[in-house]
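<derive_structure_tokens>
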Amino acid sequence: MFVGHYAVALAAKPSARRAPLWVLFLAAQWPDLLWPALLLAGVEQVRIDPGNTAVAPLDFARYPISHSLLMDLVWGALLAGIVHWRYRDLKSSLFVGAAVLSHWVLDWIAHRPDMPLWPGGPRVGLELWRSVPATALVELSLLTAGIVLYLRGTRAWDRTGRWVLWSLIAFLLAIYVSNLIGPPPPSEAALAWVSLSLWLLLPWAAWIDRHRTPVNEGRS
């Protein structure tokens, strides 16, 4: 999954009113934001393996810290606790924790059986990635739903609040299409370094937040 994770963050924002959009992006993509650093440190392992699935030419050999169900529950509880401490809003913190957990659920749907339940535990996966059309249908449907819910629950203060949102959506779709039709990464290290660039989407989300607000809420 890729755009499906961001769809979760967009959909959650109208309910998690006190949590900034960049925090929801961080939560929904936390395992994939942590993963490249662990790859570069040699703690986790991936192999370039064209044909491993129809969608992703990757063999996720070991990623128990970033992508096991148990650790994602731990990460979700930790981020939810930080959000509750910072914003004093239980509902927003619960949505942040759920966004972290949603990452494992969506990857479980997409991946072959390589998603660990706990470090060293059984691996599971429903293998949506066996089909490119089915994967695209599911992810783009999730993204569409996320955008609709976000637009219904927020409003732009100015033109920037409109175009900066749609520019982000266009950028996510461009990355998604290039991942589907582009060549495999040249190396595991190159994959890790490119994946680190996902952190740059957080300030982009913060930029959106400065120009949009939840419906029926005054400008702060």
